[in-house]
Design brief:
- The chain has helices at 15-28, 48-55, 66-79, 91-110, 125-136, 156-165, 241-254, 279-295, 298-306, 308-317, 323-335, 366-369, 381-389, 391-401, and strands at 6-10, 31-38, 59-64, 114-117, 141-144, 179-182, 187-190, 220-227, 230-234, 237-238, 259-265, 271-277, 341-348, 351-358.
- With 402 residues, the protein is an alpha/beta fold.
- Strand 13 and strand 14 (351-358) form a beta hairpin.
- Helix 3 (66-79) packs across helix 4 (91-110), helix 3 (66-79) packs across helix 7 and helix 7 packs across helix 8 (279-295).
- The longest helix has 20 residues, at 91-110.
- The protein is elongated.
């Protein structure tokens, strides 16, 4: 076993990292610095520092990364309209590279020789953390507890028993044995009672959203302003990224918007069921599409849209700090130069409906699009257009008939 002197642990205060903190001290006889990234967990951060110190940590860092998370990660993905497998807005996936990057900075600051994460050997997060570690600091020692030869736990049930035995307080219970991961973009619910893909989630599981049935009977209207593909205001009030997303989370959550229940394909090869709440993100993704619809050139949109699955796959699989991602992001950013305007939406009982859009860079021309009489478009021009596009089809048809 490599001699580890000091390790920086990505710490959330949940079951895995609470147990891992104690296990690291017992196994490696090392100093453990806990690092928690504040990316919008809110009340989950209450008492976290005291809990880590009580469990044995030598020091605790709680870094406020909310603005950086939304500005540089969430909004970058928004500009790409990135959606994984048609449903998942990548809430957890986008957070991991930022957490890992900051964890390395703490390790350098503390002169630590190792970093540790609590991701399991079955999941995606182990890949996301370690690809970032290796891309940004190839020399750092990495402890993956669940894959460590000294790890003696085989299930979360065993870890719960260990936590109870050692007096470690946890939000997870045997009555509600699912795990959650929260940030400003979403909250995910996985495992335990959710592992049966036929079982409907219980209503008391949800945190950010009310059920559509209990949402207000009166719709909520709002307007979102964009500049170069980035949301900058709500109802005419300019807001910073984290404030804006937090505000939309409340509005959309109150209207029952943003719940997704999916079975996704993990990078390691298995399928996994996840239930996600992404209220503000759902509104932003729809609003962004709407402002693009009047400002983006058709062929540019076709090229960009063809790359959405690739962008989402790179994020989901943990390749945020890869050469291909850097190139792709530069292309995405270029497509957003004229994506400026305002979108009006109606939020009502789980539905987000676009009801208006306008832009100083709008390519929509009413004189061309109208069904009424116009002076700018000669409809007879379409005859040659259609016949030229049909030429290969006509030739093929002639061949079949000969």
């Amino acid at each position: 076993m490599d001699r580890i002197r000091k390790v920086v642990l990505a710490y959330s205060g949940g079951l895995d990292t609470s147990v891992i903190l104690r296990w690291l001290i017992e196994t490696y006889q090392c100093e453990v610095i806990c690092f928690c990234a504040d990316i919008g967990q809110k009340e989950e951060l209450t008492g976290l520092k005291a809990k880590a110190l009580q469990t044995g940590a030598s020091g605790v860092y709680i870094e406020d990364l909310r603005e950086e998370f939304v500005r540089d990660y969430v909004f970058s993905a928004l500009k790409a309209n990135a959606i994984y497998e048609g449903s998942y807005l990548l809430g957890t996936s986008l957070a991991r590279p930022l957490i890992a990057k900051k964890q390395l900075e703490i390790a350098q600051r503390e002169n630590a020789d190792a970093v540790c994460h609590g991701a399991t050997g079955k999941g995606n997060d182990q890949v996301r953390f370690e690809l970032t570690f290796l891309a940004l600091n190839p020399e750092i020692k990495i402890i993956s507890a669940w894959r460590d030869e000294n790890w003696h736990f085989h299930s979360r049930s065993e870890m719960l028993e260990y936590a109870e035995k050692n007096g470690i307080p946890l939000p997870l219970s045997k009555e509600k044995p699912y795990s959650s991961d929260r940030n400003l973009l979403h909250i995910s619910h996985e495992g335990g009672i959710l592992e049966d893909p036929w079982a409907e989630p219980e209503e008391d599981m949800f945190v950010l959203t009310c059920s559509p049935e209990k949402a207000p009977d009166k719709p909520t209207y709002l307007e979102i302003g964009f500049e170069k593909g980035v949301p900058v205001s709500v109802d005419g009030v300019t807001m910073k990224p984290a404030e804006l997303l937090d505000h939309l989370n409340r509005l959309a959550g109150q209207n029952g918007i943003g719940r997704v229940d999916i079975v996704e394909n993990r990078f390691v090869g298995m399928k996994s069921r996840g239930v996600y709440e992404t209220p503000g993100g759902t509104v932003l993704w729809m609003a962004h599409r709407a402002v693009e619809s009047i400002t983006m050139d058709r062929e540019v949109m076709l090229m960009r849209d063809s790359l959405i699955p690739k962008y989402a796959q790179l994020v989901y699989n943990g390749f945020w700090f890869s050469p291909e991602m850097a190139v792709l992001q530069r292309f995405i950013d270029e497509t957003q130069q004229n994506i400026t305007g305002t979108v009006r939406l109606k939020l009502y009982k789980g539905n987000c409906i676009v009801v208006g859009r306008k832009s100083p860079f709008s390519l929509y021309h009413e004189n061309f699009a109208t069904f009424e009489k116009d002076q700018v478009y000669n409809q007879k021009d379409a005859t040659g257009f259609i016949r030229l596009n049909a030429l290969r089809l006509r030739i093929a048809g002639m061949k079949r008939g000969s």
